[in-house]
Fold each of these.
Amino acid sequence: MISNKSNTSVGMVTASRISLSGWLVATSQHEKPEDRFVTVQGLAEREVMADSALWTLRLQAHGEKEIDALAALSRQSRAVDSFLISHGLRPRDWTSGPPNLTRKEGSPVRAACTIRIETGAVWSVASAYQDIARLKANGVTLVTRPAPAFEVSDISSLAPELLWEASARARESAERYAAEAFTRLIGLKRAHQGNIEIISGDARGGSVETSQIIKKMRVVSTLEFRLAA
């Protein structure tokens, strides 16, 4: 199973670092030889890079008449287009929704629209988000300022290797324990490979996983081995 504690021009998941470990969880030795077993866990981690970004901007403008509100919204939309292009994005990387008009009695007409950016150019999106204050300076009114979400789409290609590494580390721990206890492993009693998790790659902690381009894939395998008498 795969889970996020949270599509794809880049199309690559990079693996620049692997951290592996195995540790002893518990042992149980009963009177019957067949009941003697050792339980161990193996951890595998791999650094990966997000290959898709999703960012939604919602604009709003006002005018005394509908035509005025729509004209103001159009100017803002063009300013956003130029802003995104200046950060290396291309027009095909975003779509603009139709304008929505509302008017309360005694208030100007309000026009709003949503611009949805979905692209594999993750670093361009990150750069634009860091520079978002420039939109306000250019007369763009954002309803909210949500952060972009960065995702890893190609998880399945790395999952088998990561699961194998975690299980291998668990077996190594079991073998070390058996050697130190002057016995040996005689078979696998039970195995639980666990879930693959995507977590923040920020070593300092405290960062939301979806806001990070560099992430970690992590899996823990739990194995029980029978021990010889």
Amino acid sequence: MTKPKTKQEQPAAASAPEERELTIAEQIDALTDPSFMTSLARGLAVVRAFSDSRKPQTIAQISQKTGIPRAAVRRCLYTLQQLGYVGAELNNFSLRPKVLTLGYSYLSSTPLTVSSQPCLNAITRELGESSSLAVLDDDEVLYVARSAASRVMSVALNTGSRLPAYCTSLGRVMLAHLPAAELDAYLARVKLRPMTEHTVVGQKRLREILAGVRQDGYAINNEELELGLRSIAVPVRGASGQVLASLNVGAQAARVSVDRMKQEFLPVLLRGAQELSVLLP
């Protein structure tokens, strides 16, 4: 009779395959609304494929980033080139200045961005640190205005820059004030990746932090996005009380303590947020 295998001899159970994130192309193809223009969505995805690189991109590189077939990428780039939004040298493509008009239409027509720059400049002058205004867009914080005192991050931040919401003070302010169902959906979509050794990547702990932000009225990021960077953010509300944006100040952790942020920076930010709130619908 065959001797039964001991527990140690039993073959290890196959681990469940890690859930793969959908490519941009797969997300586009999943939208089956007959009114949805797949070709337009692909064209916009091609434009956004340039946002995380300062170097010209090839058709193959854009196809790899987005998951869009090379033939479709080629047609998108040809169309964008004919319209003046993209330039080409041999097989290398880059955005042309005309693409700025797409973002400028938003910046020049939104009261929040039009009115915020003087306020940000005043905050930066008073505190001697960079200040920013951001909104939540596509699960990320989108910088809509900024006043830079000095460069405190390894990556330069400007209007139009994007960062993860879950590990930034700006993003946590916005996430903290989402309706419960929207926060649940966000956490179901977004993978919490460690940006530094301090990044909170557990959903339970993040929910606890967001509850504290909602109660305290501010969020502090302590080297979770980048080592050596500390920031504090507050909500900016519209006339209805809804949080429409977040306002923050960032500084080098070696120079500015958490206590100083609470005692000196927070009152200035709260005044700035109040000034901006008066200007919003």
Amino acid sequence: MARAKIPRKSTSVDMTAMCDVAFLLLSFFILTTKFKPSEALKVVTPSSVSNKVAPEKDVVLITIDKDGKVYLSVSDQNQTQKADMLDEINTEKNIGLTSAEKANFVKKPSSYIGVPFTQLKSYLGHAPEDLKGITIPGIPVRDSTDNQLTTWLHAATTAFSGIKFNLLIKGDDLSKYPSFQGVIAACKKNDLMKLSIVTNPVAVPAGSELYKINMAAGAQKPQ
């Protein structure tokens, strides 16, 4: 007896539910994603062959712009240390900072110091977002008798007492050497001999000695 043939029917899958879930997930990620804030100080760093990522916590960052102006900032996660640094400077230099002026450096993200002590009070009277149109002279470092970065780094060393902080220098490719020399002098006076230079990482040039070493090391790794 011949077997009855079952008619073939096309299969259809309702994708409505899956599309709804996809759009819900997309909306969730858009609403919860934190975008990287724009840099308060824009500098074009020199390139170097490096794959080491700069730390984000326990950081004291010295920035030198293309005009040779020097700025100091502390990682936003270290609000306690930022407050301690500012308190020490305020007491030592008798500046008379108010709580609101201190908060503009301590609690606002990506805040930095870029003025002499004589202008510190008026400088901190501005919110960080209002400083874009203001000309800032930078921290004095070129005069060996008045290298104010030395005082700031001493305050940082005291504030980070018991904590190993990361000292980073981020200089523009066109920055002036006297400013860099003043920064190094301030570091030496505080016995801060270990520091890192922030650069723009590039790939190892093919055919170079370092490229051959890396290739050889990769070939020797156990499979």
